[in-house]
Automatic annotation (TrEMBL):
SUPFAM superfamilies: GroES-like, NAD(P)-binding Rossmann-fold domains. This is Quinone oxidoreductase. Keywords: NADP, Oxidoreductase. The keyword Lipid metabolism does not apply. InterPro entries: ADH-like_C (IPR013149), ADH-like_N (IPR013154), ER (IPR020843), GroES-like_sf (IPR011032), NAD(P)-bd_dom_sf (IPR036291), QOR-like (IPR047618), Quin_OxRdtase/zeta-crystal_CS (IPR002364). Gene3D superfamilies: Medium-chain alcohol dehydrogenases, catalytic domain, NAD(P)-binding Rossmann-like Domain. The keyword NADP applies. One of its GO terms (molecular function) is NADPH binding. GO terms for cellular component: cytosol. Residues 11-322 form the Enoyl reductase (ER) domain.
Amino acid sequence: MSHAIRFHTVGGADVLRWETVDVPAPGAGEVTVRHTAIGVNFIDTYIRSGLYPAPLPSGLGTEAAGVVEAIGPGVDGIAIGDRVGYVGGPLGAYSERRNLAADKLVPLPDGISDEIAAASMLAGMTARYLLKCTRPVRPGDTLLWHAAAGGVGQIAVQWAKALGATVIGTVGSDAKADIARALGADHVINYRRENFAERVRDITGGHGVPVVFDSVGKDTFAGSIDSLALRGMLVSFGNASGAVPPFSPLLLSQKGSLYLTRPTLGHYTATRAELLETAADLFDVLLSGQVRVQPGQRYALKDAAQAHADLEARLTTGSTILVP
């Protein structure tokens, strides 16, 4: 028998339960992974709260690292004892062990610890597709990144600087401002004290930025639009403050023939080749030292509810992991 975090009704962090679960032998094309570190991400709170509906009862979590314990029929290229990581797939990463499709696993290279993998794969692969695929960042670009001290933000600030960009970051406290500056952000705005759209205009000589990366959602949407240069792009990839309310597409015309996209990682890693390429690119920048990641918080797996409460209260910085 094994244990997992599950929930039977949507709601606050208190709906999460520590339960005993059965893990059968892996089926065809599957392997059993014993988790050693599990990533906690804001999307997990969306699923738990019901913003992103899931069939109930349900497990939770889409990112983890661990060791292969058993292999089902028809699996090639993976051996018992291999270190692997994954992002996506069926919910259930908040568990001691689980079965997964072998083609969703990524081998972890020497030099990347299990904790670093669990703390960085979803955030890092998200930063990678946003900066290199959704709106490729070029040397000399200036960009605005909201939540620059968050899990994705900390990686993205470093990666954007490595790509030659000027980075404007928003944060919610002086402590988080210090973190963003230490990571290389050129300009840091505390949105609790300043109008970030006005500051962006000041920094850019009134022009605005060509791209805004916004994971906050409702609270920043209008300001993000007002921060954009002519024909700029708003990349909305999260809802930390709630979903963006409906609006008329005419707004995009009125504000400068703007572009708006709402991407998700799964559409950029839809094939095995895309998944491996994205992961390899992330591991390369980590191993090179261009991007550095350390888990900001560690919780015992059974304390996942506390991890969620702290994340939603904006009490965390960087990545959060659960340890079985």
